[in-house]
Write a structure and sequence with these properties.
Blueprint: E1 4-7, H1 17-30, H2 39-45, H3 51-62, H4 67-91, H5 100-109, E2 113-118, H6 122-132, E3 142-145, H7 157-166, E4 173-177, H8 180-188, E5 193-195, E6 211-212
Parallel strand pairs: 1-2, 1-4, 2-3, 4-5, 5-6
Bound molecules: xylulose-1,5-bisphosphate and magnesium ion (MG).
Xylulose-1,5-bisphosphate binds near residues 11 and 20.
Length: about 230
């Protein structure tokens, strides 16, 4: 029996990823680094999940000669990026993707439990929730985020953590994901996956998802079923 829905955050709840990119670039500028991540480069870098891991990968690839010094600066860069991202998301303010609020409301009304399994840093999710849900109306029963899991997606750790906190069997849940790495993570945690590509994951394969849709749909704005989702 279906008992819970577990949502990814970046790209699934909202189109946050370009704000992350802009926040990284502003942090680089404020810290005197002449780095600039274009949308094209960022799409490549997104293959590495987690902002801290992404920074380390970029340093490794592009600045190997200064690797030691730059690696030591990574926490400072990422902390500033998180602060700037928080400001950008509120300035927008960034809305949820179509269908997300409706689905969350209907699931709660039907007695389902709601969880989050995300690579993103917890304050990023808290801000997104604060600007999109009334104060005191916490939509999620369980949140597993960021460094709470030892290994980031595509490892199954963060979905396993969410499933454990919900106290369900994985087959009693459905995971919602926008990325190939996220789908892999949820599948390896034993969850059925519904995929909905986001702006930065248009080229991602959705193998393993039981269904794939252009978005979660609103009345009068029907979603499209996408090809490429194959139940394993
Ligand atoms: C997507 C990510 C995140 C964000 C950045 O996460 O990889 O790392 O790009 O967030 P998900 P941080 O789709 O699992 O929500 O910089 O806070 O890591
Ligand atoms: Mg995502």
């Amino acid at each position: 029996m279906l008992k819970a829905l577990i949502f990814d955050v970046d790209g699934t709840l909202a189109e946050t990823e370009d704000l992350h990119r802009q926040a990284f670039n502003r942090a680089f500028g404020q810290l005197g680094l002449d780095w600039h991540w274009t949308p094209e480069l960022y799409a490549e870098l997104l293959k590495v999940m987690g902002g801290k891991e992404r920074l380390l990968h970029y340093i490794d690839q592009e600045h190997p000669a200064e690797k030691r010094a730059l690696t030591a600066r990574m926490p400072e860069i990422h902390d500033l990026k998180t602060r700037i991202y928080g400001e950008l998301i509120e300035t927008g303010p960034l809305a949820l993707r179509p269908g997300v609020a409706r689905l969350i409301g209907e699931a709660r009304a039907a007695g389902l439990r709601l969880g989050v399994a995300t690579t993103t840093t917890r304050p990023n999710l808290d801000r997104l929730v604060a600007i999109n849900f009334p104060k005191g109306d916490e939509p999620f029963d369980v949140i597993a985020a960021g460094d709470e899991a030892a290994r980031k997606k595509p490892a199954p750790d963060i979905f396993e953590l969410a499933v454990g906190r919900l106290g369900i069997d994985p087959l009693e849940g459905i995971a919602f994901e926008d990325s190939a790495a996220g789908i892999r993570s949820a599948l390896d945690a034993g969850l059925p996956v519904l995929a909905t590509r986001s702006r930065y994951t248009q080229s991602h394969r959705l193998d393993g998802a039981f269904s794939a849709v252009s978005d979660l749909g609103e009345p009068g704005r029907p979603h499209r079923h996408l090809s490429g989702a194959v139940w394993p």
